[in-house]
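Design a sequence for this backbone.
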């Protein structure tokens, strides 16, 4: 079947997933949302750096401490500024090909160095410029074109992330899977089966069952305010039934000690927030919270942003947590424990590569929270990113 230039998913498949059609269609992510794309330390003063977000090539630069972001594509011939960045003034970037020059602050075309009297410089032309915010050591870019109507960053991150006393340490890496496999892996209550032999369980003195099944009572709630973060919150405790024993045709093949005396019971809640952020609280210790972002790079890759936060009000407390992070959690939590998550997402990318898995998938009771997030995302997103948005 032939697709139009704006389609990434077979329309026949979309017709069969009407409950979360926008979610399935959003291979490139959702438009008009905030996403973290770089560490603040990666954008140095006067040194342009590239990134890709939702299929769009971006160029960022720090000027007098403030970060700006424009599309990495000259209007004239479509070449990338980043092939040979030229900044003849601090406030502008010039295309190396013919001298088209643009302001970093708003993307407006100000001059053509090779033809100073050209009429094309009329004050109306320019490349796209995107709003930027820095928070918790991360650079967030608003992927969209809502001029004058950009929602606050707080609407697109989990509750508590931006709290003044939440001290955050972040890192990131590229994962070879669509961003939604990150979202659903992180929010999957039974995927912890793949972590059953993790060294973090011993290091954190915690108990971790083979999986969690929902009890007779609903195990999640939906946060859907008119203003503020939108998400699905999975609550543990009496709302789920942990599995400490695994059977195959009636025979016990795996066991997890069920005596939890003296063990750390983490987490108590796991929540997924629009457009692509996970909150695990507390994790991996009773005094820390893990926040993750699964940022769409293109249709087959996402930027996996891992952060750990703790309450700290003094520089001494921040330094102490930094030492703990470097000496303990960076390896045990973010590498050793989350490593299987990464290759699980990449394996899922193979399964969903032809999109038919969206209608062939055999979901079960424990996936109800994932289905709830799909429906919520389909209803509350601010737009699906399409190839036409990238070309304009």
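Sequence:
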């Amino acid at each position: 079947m032939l697709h139009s230039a704006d389609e990434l998913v077979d329309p026949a498949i979309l017709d069969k997933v009407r409950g979360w059609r926008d979610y399935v269609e959003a291979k490139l992510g959702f438009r008009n949302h905030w996403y973290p794309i770089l560490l603040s330390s990666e954008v140095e003063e006067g040194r342009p750096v590239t990134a890709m977000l939702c299929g769009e090539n971006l160029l960022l630069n720090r000027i007098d401490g403030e970060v700006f972001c424009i599309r990495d594509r000259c209007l004239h011939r479509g070449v990338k500024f980043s092939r040979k960045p030229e900044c003849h003034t601090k406030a502008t970037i010039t295309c190396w090909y013919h001298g088209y020059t643009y302001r970093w602050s708003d993307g407006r075309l100000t001059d053509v160095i090779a033809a100073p009297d050209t009429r094309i410089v009329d004050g109306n032309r320019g490349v796209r410029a995107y709003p930027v915010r820095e928070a918790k050591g991360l650079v967030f870019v608003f992927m969209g074109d809502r001029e004058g109507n950009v929602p606050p960053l707080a609407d697109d991150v989990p509750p508590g992330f931006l709290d003044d006393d939440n001290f955050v340490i972040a890192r990131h890496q590229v994962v070879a899977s669509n961003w939604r496999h990150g979202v659903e892996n992180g929010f999957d209550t039974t995927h912890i089966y793949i972590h059953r032999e993790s060294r973090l369980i011993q290091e954190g003195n915690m108990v971790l069952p083979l999986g969690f099944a929902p009890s007779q009572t609903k195990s999640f709630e939906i946060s859907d305010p008119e203003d503020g973060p939108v998400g699905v919150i999975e609550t543990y405790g009496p709302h789920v039934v942990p599995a400490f024993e695994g059977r195959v045709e009636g025979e016990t093949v795996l066991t997890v000690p069920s005596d939890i005396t003296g063990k750390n019971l983490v987490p108590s809640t796991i929540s997924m927030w629009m457009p692509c952020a996970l909150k695990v609280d507390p994790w991996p210790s009773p005094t820390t919270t893990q926040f993750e972002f699964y940022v769409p790079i293109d249709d087959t890759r996402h930027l996996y942003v891992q952060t750990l936060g703790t309450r700290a009000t003094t520089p001494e407390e921040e330094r102490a947590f930094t030492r703990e992070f470097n000496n303990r959690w960076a390896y045990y939590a973010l590498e050793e424990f989350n490593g299987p998550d990464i290759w699980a997402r990449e394996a899922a990318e193979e399964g969903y590569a032809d999109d038919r898995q969206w209608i062939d998938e055999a979901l079960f009771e424990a996936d109800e929270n994932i289905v709830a997030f799909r429906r919520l995302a389909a209803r509350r997103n601010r737009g699906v990113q399409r190839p036409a948005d990238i070309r304009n």
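The domain at 45-143 is CATH 2.102.10.10 (Rieske Iron-sulfur Protein).
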